[in-house]
Amino acid sequence: LTDRALIVLANGLESNRFLQTMNLEQNSFGEDGLCVLCHALQNNHSLHRLYLAGNEISQTSLDQLIQLSSV
Prior knowledge:
Elements: H1 3-15, E1 21-23, H2 31-41, E2 49-51, H3 59-69
Parallel strand pairs: 1-2
Helix pairs in contact: 1-2, 2-3
């Protein structure tokens, strides 16, 4: 999954009300894809588990995602 593909996925995730777990481990997206994903997650209240290991994401971005999830 690239940043571009993650953007398409995030657009669907934004309106999805049923998905509870999503595994995005071992893909090739990075900061740009994660930014779009974070925006989508602000409007998604059904996702409870998100697996991101093995992507090109900085610890700072992961910390921001964790902060978003606690809001």
